[in-house]
C-alpha cells in the first residue's frame, strides 16, 4: 500500500482546523489576561533603562564575590548562627514530636491489647493530637517567623521558634507513619508482657525503624538550614538577614559570597546525612 503524499499548506489548501486553533488561543489569552493583571506583571518594565543599568551593575558585582577579611569573618559568624538556629529549632521540634509520636502511633497503644481495639478516651486524645500536628505543619515556618518577629522583635529567637513549631508537626506525622509501617512484632510482645510504651518504643520499634528515622531527621535538619536562611529575609537572624541587607543595597559581590557559603552548608548537611545512613545501614 502506497503512502499518500502530504498536501503542502498554501492559501489554496488552508489548515482545516485553523479556526479552532485560533479560537483556542484567543480564549486562552482572555482567560490569562485577568490573572496577569491581578499579579501586576508588566514584562516591559524589565527593559526600562534604569532597571537594565541596575541589573547590569548587580550582575557585574555578583561575578566578583566579596572576599575581604572583615566581610568573610562576618559571613562565618552568620553561617554559624544559621546552623545554630536550624539545630536549636529542630531540637525543640523533637521535644514536641517524640511525645506526639507516642500518642498518635496506634501500634504503641496499650488499650488495644486484649480487646483488639482502642478505647474511646485514647482515641479522642489521639485524634486531638493529630489535629494539632496538622495545624502546626500547615502553617509555613515563614509565617510563624513573621508572627514571632512581631512578638520578640528581630533576631534568631523568631527563627528558632518558627522551625520548632512547623517541624514538630512534620516530624510527629512522619515518625508515626514510619513506626506504623515497620515490623511491630517486638513492640507488641513488649506491650503484652507489661512493658511501658516508652520502653516498647526504645527496645521494640526503634531498632527496626532507626535508619529511616535518622535519615528523615537529618533531611529535616538540612531543610531547617535552608528555611533559616529564608526566614532571615523577614528579620529572623542568620545568614538570610545579612543577605537581605546586601540585596537591598545591590551589593552583588556580597550576595554571591553568601550564596556560595549557603550552598556549602547544604552540601555539608547532605554529607552528614549520607554518613549517618551508611553507619546505620
Describe the 3D structure.
- This protein is an all-alpha fold and 281 residues long.
- The chain has a single domain (69-280), classed as MetI-like fold, CATH 1.10.3720.
- Helices cover 75% and strands 0% of the residues.
- The chain has 10 helices and no strands.
- Helix 5 (141-152) runs antiparallel to helix 6 (156-181).
- The radius of gyration is 28 Å and the shape is extended.
Summarize the helices and strands and which ones pair or pack.
Blueprint: H1 18-39, H2 49-62, H3 69-104, H4 120-138, H5 141-152, H6 156-181, H7 185-192, H8 197-231, H9 239-248, H10 252-280
Question: In oligomeric terms, what are we looking at?
Answer: single chain
Poorly predicted tracts of residues: none
User: Which architecture would the CATH scheme give at its second level?
Assistant: Orthogonal Bundle
Count, helices: 10
Question: Which class best fits the helix and strand makeup?
Answer: mainly alpha
Shape, please? extended
Terminal CA distance reads 62 Å
Beta fraction of the residues?
A: under 5%
Report the sheet with the most strands, covering strand number, pairing sense and barrel closure. none
Assign the CATH superfamily. Answer: MetI-like
CATH topology: MetI-like fold
Question: Average pLDDT, to the nearest integer?
Answer: 79
Radius of gyration: 28 Å
What level of helicity do the residues show? Answer: over 70%
CATH class: Mainly Alpha
Amino acid at each position: 500500500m502506497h503512502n499518500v503524499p502530504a498536501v503542502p499548506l498554501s492559501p489554496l489548501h488552508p489548515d482545516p482546523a485553523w479556526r479552532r486553533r485560533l479560537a483556542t488561543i484567543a480564549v486562552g489569552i482572555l482567560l490569562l489576561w485577568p490573572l496577569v493583571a491581578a499579579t501586576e506583571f508588566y514584562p516591559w518594565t524589565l527593559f526600562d533603562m534604569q532597571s537594565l543599568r541596575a541589573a547590569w551593575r548587580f550582575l557585574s558585582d555578583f561575578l566578583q564575590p566579596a572576599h575581604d577579611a572583615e566581610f568573610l569573618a562576618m559571613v562565618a559568624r552568620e553561617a554559624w548562627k544559621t546552623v545554630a538556629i536550624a539545630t536549636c529549632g529542630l531540637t525543640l521540634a523533637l521535644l514536641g514530636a517524640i511525645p506526639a509520636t507516642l500518642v498518635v502511633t496506634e501500634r504503641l497503644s496499650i488499650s488495644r491489647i486484649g480487646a483488639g481495639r482502642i478505647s474511646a478516651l485514647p482515641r479522642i486524645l489521639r485524634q486531638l493530637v493529630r489535629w494539632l500536628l496538622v495545624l502546626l505543619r500547615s502553617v509555613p515556618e515563614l509565617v510563624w517567623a513573621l508572627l514571632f518577629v512581631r512578638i520578640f522583635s528581630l533576631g534568631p529567637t523568631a527563627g528558632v521558634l518558627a522551625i520548632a513549631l512547623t517541624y514538630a508537626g512534620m516530624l510527629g506525622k512522619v515518625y508515626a507513619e514510619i513506626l506504623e509501617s515497620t515490623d511491630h512484632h517486638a513492640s507488641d510482645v513488649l506491650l503484652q508482657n507489661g512493658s511501658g510504651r516508652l520502653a516498647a518504643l526504645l527496645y521494640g520499634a526503634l531498632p527496626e525503624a532507626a535508619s529511616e528515622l535518622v535519615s528523615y531527621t537529618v533531611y529535616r535538619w538540612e531543610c531547617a538550614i535552608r528555611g533559616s536562611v529564608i526566614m532571615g529575609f523577614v528579620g529572623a537572624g542568620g545568614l538570610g538577614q545579612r543577605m537581605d541587607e546586601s540585596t537591598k543595597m545591590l551589593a552583588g559581590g556580597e550576595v554571591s559570597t553568601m550564596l556560595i557559603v549557603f550552598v556549602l552548608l547544604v552540601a555539608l548537611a547532605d554529607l552528614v546525612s549520607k554518613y549517618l545512613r551508611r553507619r546505620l545501614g
